């Protein structure tokens, strides 16, 4: 019950418009994927991508970043469509460059990556990703944010999908 209330409060707080010098980055691994080279999403993955677009609908995201893989682009697509924002592809082998770009342009962004790049990106932003993402884990949602002086990073980890969103405290 307490976790549900905390998650609701956190998401309501993120619906508040951003300040000019604030950076908030939401990070997820792509949703459930099919098999094969550069696979699409499964039915469960498509449902998760739609759920992500609902969860982040009021978060004031102004741009979505995706690695250049079909599964990541499809995970991002419902939110891009819902918000009418730009989808920008990034090089998954250059997370340092992406972190520098995000830090130099305060705002609210979603970054869709992979089981290895998503925690690495949290680290590049100065946050704490906690444990590794398991190969069968698709419901982790990170939120990193800076204070007004861009020195303090907070990292929150949530779960989203079939069950109501919940806060994960490691």
What does this structure look like?
- Mean pLDDT is 86; it is low at 1-9 and 166-170.
- The protein has a domain at 21-130: Phosphoglycerate mutase-like (Rossmann fold, 3-Layer(aba) Sandwich).
- It has helices spanning 2-14, 43-55, 70-83, 95-104, 117-124, and strands spanning 23-29, 63-67, 86-90, 107-113, 140-146, 153-159, 166-168.
- Helix 3 (70-83) links the parallel strand 2 and strand 3 (86-90).
- The relative contact order is 0.21.
- Strands 3-2-4-1-5-6-7 form a seven-stranded mixed β-sheet, sandwiched between helices.
- The chain is globular.
- The chain is an alpha/beta fold and 170 residues long.
Short description:
With 170 residues, this protein is of the alpha/beta class. The protein is built from 5 helices and 7 strands; from the N terminus they run H-E-H-E-H-E-H-E-H-E-E-E. The relative contact order is 0.21.
């Amino acid at each position: 019950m307490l976790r549900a209330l905390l998650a609701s409060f956190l998401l309501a707080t993120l619906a508040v418009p951003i300040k000019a010098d604030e950076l908030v980055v939401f990070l997820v691994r792509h949703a459930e994927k099919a098999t094969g080279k550069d696979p699409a999403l499964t039915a469960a993955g498509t449902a998760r991508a739609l759920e992500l677009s609902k969860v982040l609908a009021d978060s004031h995201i102004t741009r979505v970043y995706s690695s250049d893989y079909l599964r990541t682009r499809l995970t991002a697509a419902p939110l891009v469509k819902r918000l009418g924002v730009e989808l920008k592809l990034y090089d998954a082998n250059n997370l340092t460059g992406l972190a520098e770009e995000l830090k130099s342009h305060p705002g609210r962004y979603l970054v869709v990556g992979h089981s290895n790049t998503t925690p690495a990106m949290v680290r590049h932003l100065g946050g704490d990703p906690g444990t590794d993402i398991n190969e069968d884990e698709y419901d982790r949602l990170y939120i990193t944010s800076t204070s007004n002086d861009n020195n303090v990073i907070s990292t929150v980890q949530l779960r989203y999908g079939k069950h109501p969103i919940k806060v994960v405290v490691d």
